[in-house]
Design goal:
By secondary structure, the protein is α/β, with parallel strands linked by helices. Helix content is about 40%, strand content about 20%. The chain folds into two domains: about 15-160, GAF domain (Beta-Lactamase, 2-Layer Sandwich), CATH 3.30.450.40; about 175-385, Alpha-Beta Barrel (TIM Barrel). The chain is built from 13 helices and 14 strands. This is EAL domain, c-di-GMP-specific phosphodiesterase class I (Or its enzymatically inactive variant).
């Protein structure tokens, strides 16, 4: 037996589904402990365990040799799924594991992969001889083992998918396969371009930018991908008019990274910059974000809140961050010319922006009707396909 970590508490307050299922198995059978093991080449690793673990010298994470186990004998047919009075059974009484764990009775069923290959075992054990165990005990454990097999298969699928997402992001980071397209922000009354927004593009990728940024956040590489995107955007800024602000999108998490602040301060020396914080990114610590923004704002970097009107978080961002620019979410802008509710919400945000001194920009303007409805309600600045699609500026 390998050295084992301290036993896990037998309560299931953490809501872990597998532990609850193991508790159900031992309670239904009247057993002391239950575990889920997975097979390696010649051992079984106890990944989850519940019950009176200490009294049977069992702990989660411990490893037992398969050769000495009841499990391998059940799988080979040398033992039935139910073993009672293990200390008197000729097959089990002399096994080292019987003495080490003090096994008096045992019920086990294989946990199978989708191809029906056994990949582990659901085992229930007790110190007593298990006189209450019968055929229904086997059926109970087999049913629960089937559920565990489905659970493990889903876990493995999720792990493979997470690994694939990580590999995609790492490939982008290593090869720096990102370009910056820019979309104009215009004065909708005159058509004059007054700013640009930098939008990351990943040539040759099936996944769109939103998917790749989501993948990066899911695998803990979100800030690294944002840094690459900002670095590329600042390089692109050299090909744009210096007097027009360039907006870059950043999550609150990225804003807290020192490298991001240094990048923006260097970029602000040659380009008018706006940092846009999206409504979809929660801010857990507003004071920390405000502290990170302070040197940027002193250097002339403007602050924008993106996706306003998409939810409560955007309004909270506006109240706490006091942005220079507020962008109306595309869901609010779309069909604003025909929807009185959208028109009322737009008018309210115009009044709010006026009170706070922020500039209001409508995103996703696609039709002349939307443009005219927005202008009629006091929204002067707009961005969308009506005025120009995102494009990589010429070198």
């Amino acid at each position: 037996m390998t050295a084992a970590p301290a036993a896990r508490p037998t309560t299931t307050d953490d809501g872990d589904w597998v532990h609850r299922l193991l508790d159900l198995a031992r309670d239904r059978l009247g057993m002391d402990i239950a575990w889920l093991s997975v097979f390696t080449e010649d051992r079984q690793e106890l990944t989850r365990a519940t019950g009176d673990l200490a009294s049977m010298h069992v702990a989660e994470g411990m490893s037992l040799p398969l050769e000495e186990s009841f499990c391998v004998r059940v799988l080979s047919g040398q033992l039935p799924p139910v073993v009672t009075a293990a200390d008197r059974n000729p097959v089990t009484r002399d096994l080292p594991v019987t003495r080490k764990l003090g096994i008096g009775s045992y019920v086990g069923a294989p946990v199978r992969a989708p191809d029906r290959r056994p990949v582990g075992m659901l085992c229930c054990l007790s110190r007593d001889p298990g006189e209450q165990l019968d055929g229904s005990s086997v059926r109970t454990v087999e049913l629960l083992a089937e559920l565990l097999g489905d659970h493990l298969a889903a876990e493995q699928l999720a792990e493979r998918e997470l690994a694939a997402r990580r590999a995609r992001v790492l490939d982008v980071l290593h090869r720096r396969t990102v370009t910056t397209a820019v979309q104009p922000v215009v004065d909708m009354a005159t058509g004059e371009v007054v700013a640009h927004e930098a939008l990351s593009r990943f040539p040759g990728r099936e996944q769109g930018p939103a998917t790749l940024f989501s993948d990066a956040a899911a695998v803990g590489l979100g800030v690294e991908l944002e840094i690459l995107a900002v670095r590329t955007a600042l390089e692109t800024a050299a090909r744009l008019p210096r007097d027009l602000p360039l907006a870059v999108n950043l999550s609150p998490q990225a804003l807290l990274a020192p490298e991001v602040g240094e990048l923006l301060l260097r970029g602000a020396a040659g380009t008018a910059l706006t940092v846009e914080v999206t409504e979809h990114s929660p801010i857990e610590d507003y004071p920390a974000v405000l502290a990170a923004l302070e040197p940027l704002r002193r250097a002339g970097v403007l602050l924008g809140v993106d996706d306003a009107g998409a939810g409560y978080a955007s309004l909270r961002h506006i109240l706490r961050l006091r942005p220079d620019t507020i962008k109306l979410d595309i869901a609010l802008v779309s069909r604003v010319d025909t929807d009185p509710a959208r028109q009322a919400m737009t008018a309210a945000l115009v009044a709010f922006a006026g009170e706070t001194g922020a500039a209001l920009v409508a995103e996703g303007v696609e039709t002349p009707g939307e443009r005219d409805a927005l202008l009629a309600r006091g929204v002067r600045l707009g961005q969308g396909h009506l005025f120009g699609r995102p494009a990589v500026p010429p070198t």
